[in-house]
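F.,

This is the one I mentioned.
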């Protein structure tokens, strides 16, 4: 099996202070939940604070991502005639189905609560299409989406923050298309305003 050069390049990327802090926070939460003891917490915190690359950070939280089993049915969003939007603060389920209809579907994950390692998003773009916004640090895999008559635009970076979710998208673009991106400048300013 040949190593994916893009993944190894991402693993060699230098970690930022924010990346290290995110891992530290996840380790503290895990200790608070009793998933690691205080000695192990101390060891991993030292490694996290000394880490220079994503490759050094990733193993520190790999075994701590909670296993969440789907409770009930997947979240189904149907665009219908007028469209539908999921944004703001909401809890992300393991499986989402988005059907564009005539009005389209917009899913904004930037303020969503998500403790999953992977989310499955099944799309049917239909006439209205599906628009998705994911936070910086999340990655999207759109390789399994059938383009058909619509446009597929994945404008996300493929550098995943350790512990951040992977959005695995399947289905078809339909005529309305599928657009996946990170927040734009205006959206980032609004998010900073909400955080302060």
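My design for it:
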């Amino acid at each position: 099996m040949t190593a994916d050069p893009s993944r190894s390049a991402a693993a060699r990327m230098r970690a930022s202070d924010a990346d290290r802090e995110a891992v530290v926070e996840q380790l503290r939460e895990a200790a608070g939940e009793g998933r690691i003891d205080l000695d192990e917490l101390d060891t991993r915190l030292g490694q996290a604070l000394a880490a220079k690359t994503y490759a050094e950070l990733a193993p520190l939280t790999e075994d701590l991502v909670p296993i969440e089993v789907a409770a009930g049915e997947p979240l189904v969003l149907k665009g219908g005639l007028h469209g539908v939007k999921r944004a703001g603060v909401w809890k992300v389920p393991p499986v989402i189905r988005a059907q564009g209809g005539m009005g389209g579907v917009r899913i904004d994950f930037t303020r969503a609560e998500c403790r999953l390692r992977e989310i499955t998003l099944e799309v049917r773009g239909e006439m209205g299409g599906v628009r998705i916004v994911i936070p910086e640090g999340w990655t999207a895999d759109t390789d399994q989406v059938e383009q058909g008559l619509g446009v597929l635009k994945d404008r996300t970076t493929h550098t995943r923050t350790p512990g951040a979710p992977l959005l695995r998208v399947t289905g078809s673009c339909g005529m309305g298309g599928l657009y996946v991106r990170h927040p734009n400048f205006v959206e980032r300013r609004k998010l900073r305003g909400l955080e302060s």
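The two ends are 47 Å apart (CA to CA).

Talk soon.
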